[in-house]
Design brief:
binds pyridoxal-5'-phosphate; alpha/beta
């Protein structure tokens, strides 16, 4: 079961606890995944109750955060992430490749390494969705693929996020490779 955007952590711990209790009653459900940007922008959201909730469930919990730049990683986030990790919650990160913000292999390699130190594994590196008003952040596909190749050479495989984009109507994200250049 995936709880995803909007942002599920907008819900109070109480509401989430009620929801998770209901989900736990569904026999075939085994995993719970929450996608949220809140733990990064408001690290206080990683309350002891939330940590307890995610680690104490019968469902194996995964929290996917959304960090684009290592400057977004606060000490408070790192502490919360460490607690989740020690209690068996899987932590993953997705980033969006943004021109002028993180379109640099040095910086992305640093992000992967810093995430790992917090117990978070890089999962996805997204090409920007073409939404109105964001064109100035777009990185050309050929550059994105080159950046990703450089990253692959610099990082161990488990710290390399998958370069993907979303195509509307498709059931999963599509990997972006040199075939797309
Ligand atoms: C891609 C995506 C999912 C699904 O994740 P997969 O790991 O590809 O199955 C869920 N929520 C959001 C917000 C996503 O971007």
């Amino acid at each position: 079961m995936i709880l995803s955007g909007g942002d599920p952590l907008i819900l109070s711990d109480h509401r989430l606890a009620e929801l998770i209790k209901l989900l736990e009653k569904v026999p075939h459900l085994r995993r719970l995944r929450i996608h949220s940007r809140l733990p990064v922008i408001v690290p206080q959201r990683l309350t002891p109750e939330l940590i307890h909730l995610l680690s104490g469930s019968r469902l194996h919990s995964t929290l996917v955060v959304h960090i684009n730049h290592s400057a977004e990683i606060s000490d408070e986030f790192s502490r919360g992430a460490a607690q989740l990790k020690t209690r068996g919650v899987t932590l993953l990160n997705q980033s969006v490749l943004l021109r002028g913000i993180n379109d640099n292999s040095e910086l992305l390699a640093g992000l992967s390494e810093k995430l790992f130190e917090c117990g978070v594994l890089p999962y996805y590196l997204h090409l920007l969705d073409r939404v109105e008003g964001a064109a100035h952040f777009e990185v050309e596909i050929s550059r994105a693929v080159k950046l990703h190749d450089t990253l692959r050479q610099r990082l161990p495989g488990y710290l390399l996020p998958r370069l993907v984009r979303e195509t509307s109507g498709e059931k999963s994200k599509s990997p972006v490779t040199s075939r797309h250049c």
